[in-house]
Amino acid sequence: MKNKVIAIVLAAAAAVSVAACGTSGTDTASSAAASSAETTSAASAEESTVSSAAAESAASETSTAESTSSEAAIDLSGSKYLSDGVMTVALNSTFPPFEYVGDGTDTFDAITSNENNVTGFDVAMVNEIGKRLGVDVEIDDMDFDGIIAALGTKADVAATGMTITDERKEAVNFSDPYYDATQAVLVKNDSTVATLDDLKACTSVGCQLGTTGETVANDNGLAVNSVKSFNQAVVDLENGKNDAVVIDQIPGEAFTKQYTDLKLLPGSDFNFETEQYGIAMPKDDEVMLNAINSALQAMKDDGTYDQLLDQYVNNYEAE
Ligand code: ARG
User: Fold this and answer.
1) Rounded to the nearest whole angstrom, what is the distance from the C-alpha of residue 211 to the centroid of ligand 1?
2) How far apart are CA 17 and CA 15, in angstroms?
3) How much of the chain, in percent, has pLDDT values that exceed 90?
4) Which of 119, 126, 208 to mutate to test the pocket of ligand 1 (most atoms within 8 A of CB)?
């Protein structure tokens, strides 16, 4: 079906819009989109800390180990998924600077398994949450479109720049939001694409399967070419198979650092809406949800969150 759509659009586009979507147009020199994402201040739970949550939890559960110091980890004995002392984290490592395959030099003290040496902000964040909750963290790198289905079976949580949406909320719980985002458009430096109409005239717009970018592209009637990974979508842009790629703003910027012949057009040029990232997890574990929210809030309160943001997002350099 995808091919048919592309063929029809190809035929139509050939007649009307070669210039807007070709790779030989003059460079419109639109300046690189400046990062506008800001950290999200969680609306609720401003006072809940790991230790207060631990106290609450200890009071309501028969705790196996009494907290003896203020540093004691939260009581997770009532958590369906974390009581075994391990938090398995699903992610898709084609999303720099939130998660990408690193060279193995970044070390994370709570992470006991990380087959592909995945690094990035989300990895650092779950490492920090693991430390605060007193659990080991295992990283499981998988296709993005399989992640929600993996929750509760293959993985306990997903930390992968996942946008909180009403549709996903029917299947999973989300932590408090941890990052504001928006979709944006990657094109070659010499592309003349500038408006939504130009994008609609493109014969192939790359997306990652199962993402909100794919939804936005479909909703706008674009000639969507969905693939399993953002790396592939960007390679297809590089080799001329795609005319554009719909991708989250910050990862889009990261790819322009890796591929200097690409530029990023901000989502505001196309009326794309604001999104927020959350950690996704199965619905049947309120203890885990509260524990993760408490750890997240404590990280924000004591400056750790901002420090990790600086280290991994604001100072990201392509490897
Ligand atoms: N924010 C988008 C979404 O939730 C894209 C996330 C893609 N993440 C990834 N690790 N590839 O659908």
Assistant:
1) 5
2) 6
3) 76
4) 208
Using CA atoms, how far residue 174 sits from 5, 49, 107, 164, in Å, is 35, 18, 27, 7
Q: Looking up tokens 């030099």, which residue turns up?
A: 105
DSSP string spanning 71-119?
TPPP--TT-TTTTTSEEEEEE-SEETTTEEE--S----TTEEEETT-EE
Give the predicted TM-score (pTM) of the model: 0.81
Residue whose C-alpha is closest to residue 82's, from 278, 297, 294, 308 = 294
Local structure of 174: helix, strand or coil: strand
Calculate the CA 150 to chain-centre distance.
16
State which H helix or E strand residue 244 sits in. Answer: strand 244-248
pLDDT the model gives residue 62 = 41
| Nearest ligand 1 atom to alpha carbon 229 | 11
Question: How much of the chain exceeds pLDDT 70, in percent?
Answer: 77
- Give the Å distance between the CA of 12 and the centre of ligand 1: 31
pLDDT number for residue 191: 98
Q: Measured from the CB, is residue 122 less than 6 Å from ligand 1?
A: no
Phi, psi dihedrals of residue 268, rounded to the nearest 5°: -65, -25
C-alpha distances (whole Å) from 157 to each of 53, 116, 175, 292 are 20, 18, 10, 10
Strand 99-101 and strand 118-119: the pairing is antiparallel
Give 211 or 11, the one with higher predicted confidence. Answer: 211
